[in-house]
Each structure stands twice: as C-alpha cells, then as structure tokens.
Specification:
mainly alpha, 3 helices, about 45% helix, about 0% strand
Amino acid sequence: MISKLFENKLRQNFFRLALLSIITIFVWISFNIYRSINKSQIKFEKKKYLTPLTPDLDLDTMKIIKRRIKTKPEAWETLESELPEVLLIPEETSPSGDVKKEATSSGDL
C-alpha cells in the first residue's frame, strides 16, 4: 500500500501541476486573443489601396492629361482580318498525331 506521506506529496504535486497547467492555458489564450485583436487582418498590398483620396485637384496633372495626344475613333468594320479565309490541312497526317516515317530505298531507318 501507499504510505500516507507519499500520498500527500503525490496529491500536492498533482495539485501544483494542475494549477500550473490552468495558468499556462489561461495565459496562452489571453495572448492569442490580444494578438488577434491588435494584428491587422488587411495585408500591406491591399492596405495601400485603402488610403483615402484627397479632394484637391492637382492642376499640373490636369495640364498633362489635356496635352495627351487624342486618337481618332476607329471604324472596326472597315478593318481587314489577317487570317486566311481557307484553312489548309495537310493530307498526310496520322490520326494519333505521330509523325509517319517513310521507308527509304536503302532499307535503313
């Protein structure tokens, strides 16, 4: 049988282990909650697009835009296609897509 002294020490050690485990779990959960609250969920690449636009107009930029070369609208119906009207397919193709080897008169392949 287990002596009373050993049983009391075992109970104290088990109590300490349980108490330290509970404290560790509490600290771990608290740290993760703190980190998830303070850490931004938006990545830097997307954060730069979220900066607010200024309502001020930059006159220099407006002048540069006005100086751009303006192109004429193109009539798309008048453009000619560069593709041929008839698509030529070679007659000597194999159904499997492999290249056929022709036998030479000397017999070597």
